[in-house]
Every structure is written in structure tokens, then in C-alpha cells.
């Protein structure tokens, strides 16, 4: 049995202490295909010391993790802890006052100061977007946009068509314009965007059988609901809309035995057109096609279809690497200071985000972390990642101190962070946005950015060979790891300056 599939805690700890994990480390070939297809932005530091993974102890691994960042976090806050309510006051004083002069909008935002900070921030940003839109259209200064300017109905309609409001934003417009334009415009009739792209319910019997097979093979129900169902719904509705043969039946009743290779190739062309027009990314198009190809291939293997129509349907190629700007030590310090100042549960948030920063945990891995996965005495933590594979990691500072303090306050709790993992994950994403905003972060992406930061920091170190980097990143393939490695323009320039052209 592969060691990553073993869930026995006792065996895993013994494995860690004996450092047997290193015997399974693979050599990294310099001639591998992925080394020739990496973006120049991914320039890696050559390891001149030729570190042998078998000569690296877990004590050394812990030393590497402890010295990754130069973040000075005060043991006690140097500022007054105000919690989430204080965060709304901060948003009001720094983002609203002096930036919005419309008395109607100000009254609305002051009335909403008691709502959740995530909601309040969203309302503030939408209000600022509204003011900026009118400012541009009327060629005014921001502080000169008053109520009388916002009553321009034509500009309002143009704004709504340009930035379709979600439910919360629509309520803001409704309240404001009932005062500014009573009886002249019905906000309820304005275009509204969905806050999430949700796939339609899938009741197709063949696809239901395929999804049950996915569950048995270890695919998480969350992946099926969020990812796969969207692809299936898109494909079924595309067939129903574009082919006369399938228009007399509902999408969930389309006989998949009548779908041919030609249909799949035309669906591929359709996805490529969406990508070229900017309606989706090429990666998204590739993922949709892959899901549909696997659907028909698997239905053939399960006996639902008599022919595999996917054999000559190639995938959509795309560059999986996307350069990202990453936070510096100063940025990260501001982020954790924002937690100390504005979190209602700083002891929880500092552990949750600390696990992402110092160990590169994904957000769902944080949510599913259990008390029995942590051994404070051995200074180890067991992480169950994709396909329930378990990896044992050392706990660096200051995580050890934070985890110890959190465990002492929750002696009877099974899960470290929250017993309601699903709602916690959603809340943690929202809190990330808040702390990042307060810290003046301009980086794109959500909490997953911290994994990019973790892997990039490790890749910069001469004492972290590729096998160790892959182990800590919990990747099976090097090409997965290199997608997370980013170098700033300054780093690239320094590397170029070191080249000896003589």
C-alpha cells in the first residue's frame, strides 16, 4: 500500500520519526518535458549544492519553514482591538467620508453600519462605483457629485447595464432611487446578475450513474456540484438549443447514445469561440471539454454506450501558468495585524491563515483539520488532501504557539476551527477579502494566493531541493508545483545581472 493512502496515525508518526518518507523521493530530471515549457517568469534558482533529499532531516525541514518569513508579530497588540464593528467604522471613516457627498447614499450607508463587514464593504464599493460612473459621465470631481446629479435616469440605466447589480446591490439602488426618482423608475425591473454561476439540476439517468461512479472513485461531492454539473448542464443545454434532433426533448431526456463524435468536435469549436471572445478563459473551456470527454468515455466503460466517441477528440491546449504578484513580508505583517485589530475571533483567524502562510494549506484543508490530526508533543500535523492522501508536516513557529493556545480553549471540539466546515469556508473567504482590503493589498485572487506565496518562497531557497518542495506542496508531479512559482521583475532583473556574458 502506498504510504500516502495510509491513515493510521500511529504508523504515520513512526514514518515521520524514521524519516522513511525520503526513500520514496524521486529524482528530478533536468530533461523532463515540463522543464522546457515553463514560462520565463518562473525562473528558478539553480541548486549548486546538489542537495540529496536522503540527507535532509526533518529538523532541517523545520528550520527551513521557521526561516521562510521575516514577520515581526507582537505578542500583544500595539493597537486597540475593535472587532468587526470597528471595521465598519474604519470603512466609514476611510472609504466613505470625503469620497461620497450624496446625502441619500450617506444616509443609506450610515443606516447599514450594523450589518456584516463583508456586506458593508460590498455596499461601500458599489456606492463608490456608482459615484465614479456619474463623475466620469458628467465630467465632475468626485466631491461634486450630489443627489441632483444622480437623478439622471439615462446615466443610471447605462450604469446598471454596465454593472448589473446582485441582490444586495439592487436593494441599495432601490432604496436610494425611491427617494431620488419616486414613481419614475422601478429598480425591480432593472437587470440583475447572479452572485454565483450555478449549474442547473442534473436529472439525466446516464449522467446520474456517471456521477455516482465518480463518488465511488473518490471524487468529492463538492467537486461534482461545483465543477462537473456545470459542464454537464452546459453541454446538455447546448445540444438542446442547437440541434433539431434534440429540441423535441428536455435536456435531461436527451438520449446520449445518439450523440456522435461530430457533436463533441462542434462543442469543442463552440468552447473555443467563447474563449476567443473573452466570455470564458481558455482553461475554463478546456476543463468543460475534458469533463464531457470523460463523461462519454466513462459511460462507454460502464456499458451505457456501445461506442467510445471520444478517441479522436483532442483536448483544448492552454498555458496553465499565470503570473501573480505576491505579498512581501511587510504585506503579510499588515495582514496579521488587521486580524488582531478587526477580528471577532483573532485566535481562530490567526491559526487559519497562519496554516495557509506557513504550511501552504488549502482553505478546505484548514476547515477539515481535526484535533486528532495534531500532535503538539511531536510537533507534527497530518494533512488529508486530494483523494484522502495523508502527508505529515512539522509545525513551525509561530503556528505551534497559536495552535497550542487554540486547542487549550477548545478541549471538547472535534474540528480545530469550526464544526460547521462548509459555512466556515465561506466565511473565511469573506474575512480574507476584508483583511486584504484593510492591508491595502492589490493582489488578485483569494486565499489560494497564500499557497502560491508559500511555494514561491520555498523555491527561492538553496536549501530546499525539488523533492522537498513537492513534498511540502503536496504535489505528485513537478509540473503542478512549477505553476505556483513566481518571480518579481526585480528578482528577474537581479538574476539577469548575475549572468556573466564573458
TrEMBL record:
GO MF annotation: an example: DNA binding
Domain of life of the organism encoding this protein: Bacteria
Domain Tyr recombinase: 321-497
Biological process annotations from GO: DNA integration; DNA recombination
The keyword Glycoprotein is annotated on this UniProt entry: no
InterPro entries assigned: DNA_brk_join_enz (IPR011010), Integrase-like_cat_sf (IPR013762), Integrase_catalytic (IPR002104), Integrase_recombinase_N (IPR010998), SAM-like_dom (IPR025269), Tyrosine_recombinase_XerCD (IPR050090)
Gene3D superfamilies the UniProt entry points to: 1.10.150.130, Intergrase catalytic core
UniProt keyword list: DNA recombination, DNA-binding
Protein family (similarity comment): Belongs to the 'phage' integrase family.
PANTHER family with a match to the protein in the record: INTEGRASE_RECOMBINASE PROTEIN MJ0367-RELATED, PHAGE INTEGRASE-RELATED
Protein name in the entry: Tyrosine-type recombinase/integrase
Organism placement in taxonomy: Bacteria, Bacillati, Bacillota, Bacilli, Bacillales
Amino acid at each position: 500500500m502506498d504510504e500516502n493512502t495510509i491513515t493510521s496515525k500511529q504508523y504515520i508518526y513512526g514514518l515521520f520519526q524514521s524519516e522513511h518518507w525520503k526513500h520514496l523521493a524521486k529524482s528530478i530530471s533536468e530533461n523532463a518535458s515540463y522543464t522546457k515549457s515553463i514560462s520565463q517568469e518562473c525562473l528558478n534558482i539553480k541548486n549548486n549544492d546538489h542537495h540529496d533529499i536522503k540527507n535532509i532531516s526533518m529538523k532541517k525541514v523545520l528550520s527551513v519553514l521557521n526561516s521562510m518569513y521575516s514577520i515581526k508579530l507582537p505578542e500583544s497588540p500595539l493597537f486597540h482591538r475593535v472587532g468587526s464593528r470597528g471595521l465598519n467604522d474604519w470603512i466609514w471613516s476611510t472609504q466613505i467620508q470625503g469620497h461620497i457627498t450624496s446625502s441619500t447614499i450617506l444616509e443609506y450607508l450610515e443606516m447599514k453600519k450594523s450589518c456584516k463587514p463583508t456586506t458593508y464593504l460590498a455596499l461601500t464599493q458599489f456606492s463608490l462605483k456608482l459615484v465614479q460612473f456619474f463623475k466620469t459621465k458628467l465630467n465632475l470631481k468626485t466631491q461634486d457629485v450630489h443627489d441632483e446629479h444622480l437623478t439622471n435616469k439615462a446615466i443610471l440605466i447605462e450604469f446598471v447595464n454596465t454593472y448589473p447589480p446582485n441582490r444586495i446591490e439592487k436593494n441599495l439602488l432601490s432604496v436610494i432611487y425611491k427617494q431620488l426618482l419616486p414613481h419614475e423608475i422601478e429598480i425591480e425591473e432593472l437587470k440583475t446578475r447572479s452572485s454565483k454561476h450555478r449549474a442547473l439540476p442534473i436529472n439525466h439517468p446516464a449522467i446520474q450513474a456517471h456521477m455516482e461512479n465518480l463518488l465511488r472513485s473518490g471524487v468529492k461531492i463538492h467537486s461534482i456540484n461545483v465543477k462537473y454539473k456545470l459542464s454537464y448542464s452546459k453541454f446538455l443545454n447546448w445540444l438542446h438549443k442547437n440541434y433539431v434532433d434534440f429540441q423535441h426533448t428536455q435536456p435531461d431526456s436527451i438520449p446520449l447514445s445518439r450523440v456522435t463524435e461530430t457533436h463533441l468536435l462542434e462543442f469543442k469549436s463552440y468552447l473555443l469561440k467563447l474563449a476567443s471572445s473573452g466570455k470564458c478563459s481558455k482553461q475554463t473551456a478546456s476543463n468543460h471539454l475534458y469533463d464531457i470527454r470523460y463523461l462519454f468515455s466513462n459511460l462507454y466503460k460502464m456499458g451505457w454506450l456501445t461506442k467510445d466517441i471520444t478517441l479522436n477528440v483532442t483536448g483544448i491546449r492552454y498555458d496553465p501558468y499565470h503570473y501573480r504578484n505576491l505579498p512581501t513580508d511587510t504585506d503579510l505583517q499588515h495582514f496579521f495585524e488587521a486580524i488582531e485589530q478587526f477580528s471577532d475571533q483573532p485566535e481562530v483567524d490567526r491559526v487559519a491563515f497562519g496554516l495557509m502562510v506557513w504550511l501552504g494549506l488549502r482553505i478546505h484543508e484548514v476547515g477539515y483539520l481535526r484535533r486528532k490530526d495534531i500532535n503538539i508533543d511531536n510537533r507534527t500535523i497530518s494533512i488529508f488532501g486530494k483523494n484522502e492522501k495523508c502527508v505529515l508536516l512539522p509545525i513551525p513557529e509561530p503556528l505551534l504557539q497559536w495552535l497550542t493556545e487554540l486547542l487549550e480553549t477548545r478541549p471538547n471540539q472535534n474540528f480545530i476551527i469550526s464544526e460547521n466546515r462548509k459555512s466556515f469556508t465561506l466565511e473565511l473567504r469573506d474575512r480574507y477579502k476584508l483583511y486584504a482590503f484593510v492591508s491595502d493589498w492589490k493582489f488578485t485572487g483569494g486565499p489560494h494566493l497564500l499557497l502560491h506565496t508559500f511555494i514561491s518562497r520555498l523555491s527561492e531557497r538553496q536549501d530546499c531541493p525539488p523533492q522537498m518542495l513537492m513534498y511540502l506542496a503536496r504535489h505528485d508531479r513537478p509540473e503542478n508545483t512549477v505553476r505556483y512559482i513566481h518571480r518579481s521583475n526585480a528578482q528577474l532583473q537581479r538574476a539577469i545581472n548575475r549572468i556573466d556574458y564573458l
